[in-house]
Amino acid sequence: MTIDWWTLGFQTANVAILIWLLGRFFWRPVAGMIEQRRAEAQRLLAEAEAKRGEAAAALAGVDSAREGFAKEREAILEAARQSAETARTARLAETAKEVAALEAAAKARIEKERDAAEAAWRERATQLAVSIAERLAARLDGPAVRGAFLDWLLDAIRRLPESEREAMAQDGAALEVISAKPLDPAGQEDCRARIGDAFGSHPGLTFKVDTALIAGMELRGAHLVVHNSWRADLTQILAEMTHDDRA
Amino acid sequence: MKSPLASSILFHVGPVPVAASVVATWVIMTILVLGGMLVVRGLSLVPSKTQAAFELIVATVDAQIRDTMQAEPGPYRAFIGTLFVFVFVSNWSSLVPGVEPPTARIETDAALALLVFLAVIWYGIRAGGLRGYLKTFATPNPIMIPLNFIESITRAFSLMVRLFGNVMSGVFVVGIVLSLAGLLVPIPLMALDLLTGAVQAYIFAILAMVFIASAVSETKPPPAVSS
């Protein structure tokens, strides 16, 4: 067996060249691609890990925010509840006050209306009483009553102060004698004589009739009137009763 | 009668004879390089099935280097990987009718062993310098220098002989059976020859790694021991 040295040299060079060529065009690029993919995968893993960290942080943030929302919601609800309670209390107090005011006003109005109604009824009753008295007094107008009224007129004249009586009855003064019914001449003469005696002088008397007097006899001068009739009495009574009611 | 072990010269370039094994090697080189370039041209981060298959080959070679040499595969990948691929493809080239595997010739196996021998020296010097590499011959003591020197030659020689013996014997057996029995009879032997070829490629690459790793590790200083 012999060795062909040329062939040995060729094969040595061939394999050496093949080693270089494959190293240059196959092993290094493929290994580089594997390394590149490994680096890329590692980068993606790192990125994914970072993203996962970010997501976890974001999730924690969301959880925290959600917890904050729940607390805030509770706080808002509590505040609203307290506000509503305060408003309800205030509204109740205000309503109670308004009700009390309305009740007081209603009571006052009822009291006032009742007083007014009572006063009106009293006035009407008084007027009715006066009217009844007028009718009753009208039936009493007779000679006896007229004599009585003449006597009361003379008493009134006599109770007048001296100065007023003299001023009223000085000679020549014109006085009117008002009666509810006309006096006959005898009656007029009698009245003239007795009134003159009461004054102590002789004033000029004229006789007039006023049915509104109901019954009685009044004396009217230029500055003084002597009331002496049912009408004057009833008017005074009515005024006094009305005044008492209003007082 | 011509020896079957002698190289069959196809043609001469001037005074230089060109053997059939050299031409077969050129063809294999062309196929491997063009195939490699074709694979590399379509590389992408999202691999196709073809790319994934080739990446699997590279990753397997890297894993073997890591496991055997206890080192990063970068500096050794091209050498070890190419040795394995070339031996593998050469061994299996016997499947092509009329083609004799280049590794069935002693010159090709001698060339491969010579390259491993040189690579051991290169990587040894690269790892520990010339002095460091030469010191490895004096381990464990200077008396071992001749033996270590002879060992470095004989283990390269054993590489050559092992590969040559296995492949050449397979080719011879198939040839003899084919000449005696007929067309289809040697097929089981050819299948066995394929298995032998794959195993021999693997063994050749593993032994190359072991020799290189031995040279590299011996030139490195021992790790510091801390108590």
Total domain count of chain A: 2
CATH architecture of the largest domain in chain A: 2-Layer Sandwich
Enumerate how many helices of chain A there are, as a single number. Answer: 5
- Pair of chains with the largest interface and how many residues each contributes: A-B, 32 and 50 residues
Largest sheet of chain B: 2 strands, antiparallel
Main sheet: strand order of chain B: 1-2
Helix proportion of residues of chain A, in percent?
over 70%
Question: Judging from the principal axes of the Cα atoms, what is the shape of chain A?
Answer: rod-shaped
Distance between the termini of chain A: 168 Å
Average pLDDT number of chain B: 88
Strand order of the largest sheet of chain A: 2-1-3-4
The profile of the biggest β sheet of chain A is:
4 strands, mixed
Low-confidence sequence ranges of chain A:
none
The CATH class of the largest domain in chain A: Alpha Beta
- CATH topological fold name of the largest domain in chain A: hypothetical protein PF0899 fold
Please count the beta strands of chain B (DSSP E, at least 2 residues each). 2
Features:
heterodimer; A: 247 residues; alpha+beta; hypothetical protein PF0899 fold; 2 domains; four-stranded mixed beta sheet; 5 helices; 4 strands; rod-shaped; B: 227 residues; mainly alpha; two-stranded antiparallel sheet; 6 helices; 70% helix
Give an account of the 3D structure.
- The complex is a heterodimer of chains A (247) and B (227).
- Chain A is 77% helix and 7% strand.
- Chain A is α+β, with helices and mostly antiparallel strands and 247 residues long.
- Chain A has two domains: 1-103; 140-246, hypothetical protein PF0899 fold (2-Layer Sandwich).
- Chain A has a four-stranded mixed sheet, covered by helices on one side.
- In chain A, helix 4 links the parallel strand 1 and strand 2.
- Chain A is rod-shaped.
- Helix content of chain B is 70%, strand content 4%.
- Chain B is built from six helices and two strands, in the order ββαααααα.
- By secondary structure, chain B is mainly alpha-helical.
- The model of chain B has no long low-confidence stretch (mean pLDDT 88).
- Chain B has a two-stranded antiparallel ribbon.
- Chain B has a domain at 77-219.
- The chains are: A alpha+beta (247), B mainly alpha (227).
- Chain A binds chain B through residues 1-4, 6-8, 10-12, 14-23, 25-31, 33-34, 36-37, 40, and chain B through 3, 5-7, 9, 16-19, 21-22, 25-26, 29, 32-33, 36-37, 39-40, 43-45, 47, 51, 54-55, 58-59, 62, 73-74, 77-79, 81-83, 85-86, 102, 105-108, 110-112, 114-115.
